[in-house]
Amino acid sequence: SDSVLVHVEDRVALITVNDPDRRNAVTAEMSVALRTAVDAAEANENVHALIVTGAGKAFCAGADLTALGAATEDGLRGIYDGFLAVANCSLPTIAAVNGAAVGAGLNLALAADVRIAGPAALFDPRFQKLGIHPGGGATWMLQRAVGPQVARASLLFGMRFDAEAS
Predict the structure, then answer these.
(1) Are the C-beta atoms of residues 61 and 102 closer than 8 Å to each other?
(2) 3-state secondary structure of 3
(3) Which residues contact 40 (CB under 8 A, 6 or more apart)?
(4) Alpha carbon of 132 to those of 38, 113, 136: distances in Å?
(5) Distance, CA of 88 to chain centre
(6) In a structure prediction context, what are the per-residue pLDDT tens digits for the chain, which is 166 residues long?
(7) Which residues contact 165 (CB under 8 A, 6 or more apart)?
(8) CA–CA separation, 160 vs 101, rounded Å?
(9) Strand partners, 4
């Protein structure tokens, strides 16, 4: 799929979510492609680590709101499946956050074992501003990364983090 690009070099799979015109917003199709890419990297004996990043200026703008609004429980699980593949990957995983990681995009970054924040990185939960629950494991993954008090403040009050703060 063109929505997710894979390049393997020097035993590292570079997986790029690739819809820069839409700031790499996660669709069901992209989530399936992300799961497929992660599974293929795990199955490849020549791959020893995985990096996920975003094409263009954004890391990932979160779930496509049209798809999210129309999603049933199974649809939500489908949208979450891509970043859960990263979270459950048996390889070491790195999120190379090159721009905004918003909502489900934040979840994608948090799903990796390590996050490397470029100068334009911005971590923004955005859930409360949209009036939706921070789903997909956001509450658990965020408190694991920054501690419970900072996670609560971020999720309840919309606190964002930039590359310097992370």
Answers:
(1) yes
(2) coil
(3) 6, 13
(4) 28, 26, 12
(5) 13
(6) 699 999 999 999 999 999 999 999 988 899 999 999 999 999 999 999 999 999 999 999 988 766 655 555 565 677 788 999 999 999 999 999 999 999 889 999 999 999 999 999 998 886 565 556 666 666 667 778 777 888 777 777 777 777 777 5
(7) none
(8) 10
(9) 17
50 in Cβ contact with 13 (< 8 Å): yes
| CA distances (Å), origin 76, targets 32, 44, 72, 161 | 12, 28, 6, 26
Q: Is-contact 26 77, C-beta < 8 A? A: no
- Beta-carbon contacts of 101 under 8 Å, excluding residues fewer than 6 positions away, are 59, 60, 95, 108, 109, 121, 122, 123, 124
Q: Tell me which residue has tokens 């263009």.
A: 56
Nearest-angstrom CA–CA distance, 42 and 45: 7
Reported pTM: 0.84
